[in-house]
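Narrative summary of target 7.
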Amino acid sequence: MNNKKEQRIKAKQLRLDINKELYQAYSDNICKKLMELDEYVNANTVLAYCPISNEVDTSLILEDCIKNKVLALPRTIIAENKIIPSAVNNMSDLHEKAYSIMEPKENCSEVNLYDINLIVVPLVAFDKYGTRLGYGGGYYDRLLSKTQNCKKVGIAFSLQELNYIKSESHDIKLDVIITEKKVFNF
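Modeled conformation, tokenized:
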């Protein structure tokens, strides 16, 4: 199964099939592992995400960042195919936008990419080489290509690991991928 479209379909379905109790236990385990990384502990500003479609539940990370760091979440500008990292002080700063994603409201201030120390990246699937398979819109690859000196950490369930994902020139590899079973460093 080398076709990215087929890989996406299969990985999304596997993720949706996770038992509800295991989903939360795995998510919490993954978040705790991320929060133990030196890069996270030392980060002042973290760009994270609000999950959809059984992505890893980031609640623990979001709560910790709101209390102890500057939390940025992606605000999507679909007409321009881009993400604007926006500061969030509490969860009431969010509203539902495209694709049923909770995003910062328009009055949330933009966070400069150079101020972000760590980016928590959602993904559909990954491989042992640090290649991330996203949803196919390229939003994160465009954003990640503009970042410097920040750690790019993907979080996923171990069942989302594929043997190989064909990397294209615009694909940005991740520095770390964390699952409930393992931390991969690249």
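The chain has one domain: 4-185.
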